[in-house]
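$ run holo --ligand "zinc ion" --emit tokens
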Amino acid sequence: MSLDNQSNSDSQSLQSQAPRKPPFFFREEYSGLIVKGNFMTLAAKPKLVEEGEWLAHQVVEQYRLLEQMIDIIKVVDERTSKPICNPDVCPTMSASGHTYTWLDNQKKPIKIPAIQYINLVQKWIVGKINDPTIFPTDTTSPGFSAAAYASGSLTPSSTPLPVGPTNLNTPLSALSGREWLGKSSGFPETFEADIKSIYRQMMRCYAHIYHGHWLEPFWNVNAYKELNTCFIHFINVGKLFGLIGDKEMEPMQPLIDLWLAKGLLPQAEAQGSTQQGPAPGTAT
Ligand SMILES: [Zn+2]
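-- output --
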């Protein structure tokens, strides 16, 4: 089986559903965070760090945070002796009328239990992150970006390279060939598409966690603010660097809108390397 990475429109089906009350997690009183932190600062790229490296670091960090939330829905419930998210309670990977599908061996979209979907996503993301041809830097050590930059080991431009005959009329960009995100740090041309795919799948996991498990267990064990904190950081980075589209955020849009209204998230046009938008330090 493989990943169904098509856009949401053709990988999800709208189930017939009666109008229902908005979930609790779309209410302002439950939109709080565990920190008063400034998420713009957390996400903003340090000046000297190349953007590809920074995004690789962010993706690994975002996955680490998501993994902690996923672990919470995998805890075995003593009453049922089953994990909280199991095929009985979550027979499909669903969130707010969206059902995400996986591709079978014939590339046909199939519905599988949420926990199976999440396990496959985790395996797929870990495979990507640990693949040196996709993530060529040591993204596991803290502060790798600055250290790698300082050592010059990831800046091929600082190393003398043999160049072919030059023509003074040829622009420098043409001599170096095509440009892409992370090229100067050694990331492959597919890097941007890869991290966007990773982001899309992580978004689906968050959507299922909220829509399937906000009450049990996050509300019941008083961990919903931790969940909000991980999710707002995820959305902030995704919006700042254009890693995620509006359509993908749709199942969680009302909560995102609440945070936007409070100035906790950047408006869509913000750029990653600049710190725009109001400082959100006063909100809780
Ligand atoms: Zn579930």
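-- notes --
The longest helix spans residues 191-219.
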